[in-house]
């Protein structure tokens, strides 16, 4: 563990809380201790930000924005390109730190850093494509067009389950758009954030800039400072629906913008003609990967009654072969839950599911012999979409429901408050197109013959309903980090008014 931290130059994390113009700022408040979810033992500690150091950090981001916003976008792209290259150089140690601190298996930790690299590559190309439209004016001798300008310093609040990638989704795109970024990571995973900030600091120094990327480690109090801070015109928040609602209301009161990535209660419809080998593999990764702690984790299976029993048997057999243990060990497929509180929440959900008529097919137990936060991935057959099924439990619980018609399946699928990711397995083009139609899946992500988890960075990521409606990463999500301006230029010698209005001679 020591060598891993040393590789990432974070031996002195007890001293650093914010990164700004003058480097790491220090405080004397009680440190946040990062715990290894595999063992429950401390890894290291970070002293959190205070109101004073937070304000210093935001002020630095404000000052940096004044020059950064006027830097040509392709030059901003050069910095993000070098950030991506620096992440490449640190791919394995940073990915292993993600696994150590968060608990996802090594392949997923390294995959998360690769996702950061990918979004940097995407953003570099984007830096030459921040285009607006031109429109024909109704007035002779006039030209109309729109352009996009940077917003300002933006706040990014990320969750524990993706301690690296979600920052990059926001930061890489915001940076090429001309914004500066102030990041508050989850207090469960501060070391990953400190390591990333060290990398970003070196890249900024190489380019002769500072304050483009800044860090403010802390708990809920720092998040409240950000959401109430009128200096941050945009706050991107990833987390629970309950907290997201508070963030949305708080930022809206000051007329700020939000990008919200909240809960997901993601379902896969498995049709009668589905390839069950394909479906089983996709469901297994979607439900068990990251110990069910992805916002895109598969939580509901809506299976046609003709194949439900066979699919359930296949899944039960696959679940019994999942190797659970140290996420950094070779061959491990599922690590621990993030906290003991998460373990308790899973047990409560399973008890409630049984009260509502559910039958545990496989799993359901804690694994204290492995570690205090290890559980068995669990499959529960449900008689219908009960109250507990409609809730998102951030744990490896998979509910199996049956349907007769595609209309019934879609009704079950859409009958939850969340709307992030969805999928269907079918060999029928009609069934697939019905799922993808306006009357089909109501989620922001809808897939055919692949699972709900593992989105690529080329498409905008986000969902509808209580998922928050935000979009990050690819496509035209960059527009969320900029302000639109419409321009009209009169190159004639006349002054006609729009709509043909005449106002005197």
Structure description:
Strands 2-1-9-8-7-10-11 form a seven-stranded mixed β-sheet, sandwiched between helices. Strands 14-15-16-13-12-18-19 form a seven-stranded mixed β-sheet, with helices on both faces. The chain has a three-stranded antiparallel β-sheet with strand order 5-6-23, with no helix packed on it. 37% of the residues lie in helices and 21% in strands. The model is unreliable at 11-17 (pLDDT under 50). The chain is an alpha/beta fold and 505 residues long. It has 15 helices and 23 strands. Helix 3 runs antiparallel to helix 6 and helix 10 (276-288) packs across helix 11 (308-319). It is globular.
Secondary structure elements and their pairing?
Elements: H1 2-7, E1 18-20, E2 23-25, E3 32-35, E4 42-46, H2 51-68, H3 73-89, H4 91-102, H5 106-126, E5 134-136, E6 142-150, E7 153-157, H6 165-177, E8 180-184, H7 190-206, E9 213-216, H8 220-227, E10 234-238, H9 241-253, E11 257-261, E12 266-270, H10 276-288, E13 298-304, H11 308-319, H12 340-355, E14 359-362, E15 378-381, H13 387-390, E16 397-403, H14 406-414, E17 418-419, E18 421-425, H15 429-436, E19 445-448, E20 460-461, E21 464-465, E22 472-473, E23 482-490
Parallel strand pairs: 7-8, 7-10, 8-9, 10-11, 12-13, 12-18, 13-16, 15-16, 18-19
Antiparallel strand pairs: 1-2, 1-9, 3-4, 5-6, 6-23, 14-15, 17-21, 20-22
Helix pairs in contact: 3-5, 3-6, 3-7, 4-5, 4-7, 5-6, 10-11
């Amino acid at each position: 563990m020591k060598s891993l931290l040393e590789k990432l130059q974070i031996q002195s994390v007890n001293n650093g809380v914010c990164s700004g113009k003058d480097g790491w700022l220090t405080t004397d408040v009680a440190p946040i201790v990062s715990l290894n979810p595999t063992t429950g033992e401390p890894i290291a500690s970070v002293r959190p930000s205070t109101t004073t150091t937070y304000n210093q950090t935001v002020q630095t981001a404000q000052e940096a924005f004044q020059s950064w916003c006027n830097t040509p976008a392709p030059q901003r792209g050069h910095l993000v390109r070098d950030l991506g290259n620096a992440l490449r150089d640190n791919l394995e140690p940073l990915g292993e730190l993600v696994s150590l601190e968060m608990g996802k298996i090594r392949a997923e930790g390294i995959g998360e850093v690769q996702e950061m690299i990918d979004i940097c590559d995407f953003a570099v190309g984007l830096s030459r494509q921040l285009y607006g439209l031109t429109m024909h004016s109704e007035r002779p001798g006039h030209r109309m067009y729109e352009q996009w300008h940077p917003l300002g310093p933006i706040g990014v609040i990320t969750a524990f389950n993706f301690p690296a990638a979600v920052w990059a989704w926001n930061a890489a795109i915001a940076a090429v758009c001309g914004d500066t970024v102030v990041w508050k990571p989850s207090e469960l995973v501060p070391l990953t954030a400190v390591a990333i900030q060290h990398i970003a600091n070196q890249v900024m120094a190489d380019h002769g800039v500072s304050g483009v990327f800044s860090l403010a480690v802390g708990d809920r109090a720092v998040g409240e400072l950000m959401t109430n801070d009128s200096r941050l015109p945009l706050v991107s928040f990833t987390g629970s629906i309950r907290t997201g609602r508070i963030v949305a209301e708080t930022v809206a009161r000051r007329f700020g913008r939000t990008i919200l990535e909240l809960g997901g209660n993601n379902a896969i419809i498995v049709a009668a003609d589905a390839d069950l080998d394909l479906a089983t593999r996709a469901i297994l990764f979607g439900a068990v990967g990251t110990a069910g702690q992805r916002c895109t984790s598969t939580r509901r299976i809506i299976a046609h009654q003709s194949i439900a029993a066979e699919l359930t048997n296949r899944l039960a057999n696959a679940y019994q072969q999942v190797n659970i243990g140290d996420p950094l060990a070779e061959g491990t497929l599922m690590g621990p839950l993030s906290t003991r509180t998460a373990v308790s929440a899973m047990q409560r959900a399973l008890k409630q599911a049984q009260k509502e008529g559910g039958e545990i097919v496989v799993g359901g137990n804690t694994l204290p012999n492995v570690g205090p936060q290890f559980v068995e991935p669990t499959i529960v057959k449900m008689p219908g979409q009960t109250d507990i099924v409609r809730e998102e439990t951030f744990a490896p619980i998979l509910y199996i429901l049956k349907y007769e018609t595609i209309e019934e399946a879609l009704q079950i699928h859409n009958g939850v408050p969340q709307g992030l990711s969805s999928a269907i397995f079918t060999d029928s083009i009609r069934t697939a197109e019905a799922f993808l139609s306006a009357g089909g899946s109501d989620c922001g992500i809808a897939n055919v013959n692949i699972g709900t988890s593992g989105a690529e960075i080329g498409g905008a990521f986000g969902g509808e309903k209580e998922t928050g409606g935000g979009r990050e990463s690819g496509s035209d999500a960059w527009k969320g980090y900029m302000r639109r301006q419409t321009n009209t230029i009169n190159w004639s010698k006349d002054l006609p008014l729009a709509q043909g209005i005449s106002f005197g001679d």
